[in-house]
Amino acid sequence: MSEKEKRYQELKSIVANYLPDDVSAESISLQSHFINELNINSANLVDIVLDVEDAFDIMLENEDMDQMETVQDALRIVDSKIESRT
Amino acid sequence: MNKIEILKKLPYAEPFLFVDELLDIHSEGAVGKFTFKRDMNFYRGHFKEVPITPGVILTECCAQIGLVCLGIFLLGKDIDETPLQIGMSSSDMEFYIPIYPGETVRVESEKVYFRFGKLKCRVKLFNQAGELACKGVLAGMLKSERNGK
């Protein structure tokens, strides 16, 4: 598994913790919109960001949060933070 | 922002205001007081023969002092001219001792984090005798229009 694929799997497992009961973990895809499709509220989106920061040892800013609409957006932000770190 | 200014910014009014006074406020936490008046309406029905302050009202008192007052302080100047938008997002409380009509309670909150508009706090509510009556963790979203979306 590539580094990026590992990150995606880890991100999915974080997101799965915050899904409401009527959304299954299998429905998470790269294109999933956190609020409109996965029914995650803004408070839980903050929890996801905090878990992502811990899991990947990165720090997100307000601008990153504003751009984080889909799983793919989140992954792109994580990738760029990790790359700019090294 | 001082304690009086924070109370003025609270978006509550009777019969749903549960803060009388702020005793301390700083970036890591808040302390405040409230007296449950004997004639408050909910005592007529909770319970029919034995008036005791409902747990949801104690939770609300903790939230108004511990989350909202602290949140207003933390947002600071951002909310000077823009309306405050708030909503409780989670509550996890345990209750130990009943609070009776007429008691003055003290609420202490300790910030866990305030990030991206979400404020999470540990709260404790003490009865008039200074005994711990309930405690828990509360979180809410607090934003002013200029501050976020």
UniProtKB/TrEMBL annotation, chain A:
Protein family according to the UniProt entry: Belongs to the acyl carrier protein (ACP) family.
Protein name listed in UniProt: Acyl carrier protein
Gene that this polypeptide is encoded by: acpP
GO cellular component: cytoplasm
Protein's cellular compartments: Cytoplasm
Residue ranges of every copy of the Carrier domain listed in the record: 2-82
Key words, A-Z: Cytoplasm, Fatty acid biosynthesis, Fatty acid metabolism, Lipid biosynthesis, Lipid metabolism, Phosphopantetheine, Phosphoprotein
Function: Carrier of the growing fatty acid chain in fatty acid biosynthesis.
From TrEMBL, chain B:
Xref: CDD domains: FabA_FabZ (cd00493)
Coiled coil: none
Transmembrane stretches, start-end: none
Pfam families membership: FabA
Signal peptide (UniProt feature, chain positions): none
UniProt KW keywords: Lyase
GO molecular function: lyase activity
Record Gene3D superfamilies: Hotdog Thioesterase
Domain of life of the organism encoding this protein: Bacteria
Database matches in InterPro entries: FabA_FabZ, HotDog_dom_sf
Full protein name: 3-hydroxyacyl-[acyl-carrier-protein] dehydratase
Organism of derivation: Flagellimonas meridianipacifica
